[in-house]
Amino acid sequence: MKTIYLDHSATTPVSEGALAAYCDASRLTFGNPSSLHAVGKAAEDLLTESRTTVRGALGATDGTLVFTSGGTEANNLALFGRAYAKERYRTGKTILTTAGEHASVERPLAALATAGYRVITLPTRGGVIDMEAATAAMNEQVILVSAMLVNNETGALYNIASLSACMKRLAPEAILHCDATQGFLRTETSPRRLGADLITVSAHKIGGPKGIGALWVSPAVLKNRGLTPYLLGGGQESGLRSGTENVPAAAAMAEACREGVRDRAARMEHLRALEEHLLSLLQQIPQIRCNRAPVSVPHIFSITLPDIKSETMLHFLSSRGISVSSGSACSSHGRHGATPLAAFGLSDREADCTIRVSLSHTNTAGDLDALAEGLRAGLDSLVRMRP
Ligand code: PMP
Fold this sequence. Notes:
Blueprint: E1 4-5, H1 16-28, H2 38-58, E2 64-68, H3 71-89, E3 94-98, H4 103-114, E4 118-122, H5 131-137, E5 142-148, H6 160-170, E6 175-179, H7 191-194, E7 198-202, E8 213-217, H8 219-223, H9 247-262, H10 264-283, E9 289-290, E10 300-304, H11 310-319, E11 322-323, H12 327-331, H13 340-344, H14 348-352, E12 354-358, H15 365-381
Parallel strand pairs: 1-11, 3-4, 3-5, 5-6, 6-7
Antiparallel strand pairs: 2-8, 7-8, 9-10, 10-12
4'-deoxy-4'-aminopyridoxal-5'-phosphate (PMP) is lined by residues 70-72, 75, 102, 104, 148, 152, 179, 181-182, 202, 204, 213.
């Protein structure tokens, strides 16, 4: 049976090039970048080159890129790092965020709320940040605004630039953190365009290995010591993240970025064609509904089924070799705030019946035909939930 993988927002396969870069670095450039001899220097050089490449892929020309163990750690560093830096100066304690953030933003903010910070969550109904609520909440007490670029469940592409412009106008003490994990290399992530001071990315969503990601830090935040590290030790990564650097993973992430930048136009054109094809296939299945924001990325689709539990459909499709995700169930586990689907406006029952399909440039129109056929067969044969 052919495997049809449609869960690229969970993770992507590692590209051959990235894997080769990982192996080469492990074998040939195994030194500790902090060592002063030639073997250490070679590792340091490869790390520096990788950092420059990833920073370039992000669209940044300045600032520092701090390698972390992934998107989760980068988000934690941004949020706790900013809150603790500001604590030193005893300034405001308000943090703004959006409804339906990834758990690696939502949970640190819940912890900060418990520690006495005032966390205000802006509604994102229909996949759009409520700018009236944002305008009303901005003031000189706000020290941080944290908003994702692309929602990992719905594919909604948020207008970070206008949130940043609003922040700069009304909240002079604040900086903007953007979790760009699901948008990196597939939509604009340049700090200048987004108006962001901190940006999170992760390698395993773009054909790199798991366990590495990065936080881009603006020159102003660096200069003002606006971020306090919480991993203390040897002072690596500009003092912001101690620990011997994972040079092979950084080199592999850089290679995935090189490929992503080189093939960006072709990949995006392909993804847009797949998007059009999938939307027209879904339109031909009247029982289902696609939860689409007015501005969306072309690679993430949230699909609500008529009274069939997402997990039931997931297993049915899986038995046909098709992998999709039932995002709402796993992200709702132990959550404090609204799940992304509830934030979008779905009821609990609808969210329970919603699957996520996420594509990459490696998918084909045939994969989507097989998905549509699988959905039809599932709708015909699966037992419906009782009212
Ligand atoms: N943010 C978002 C929006 C994500 O989708 C994910 C991964 N699911 C993360 C952060 C966490 O990234 P990582 O798996 O690299 O820790």
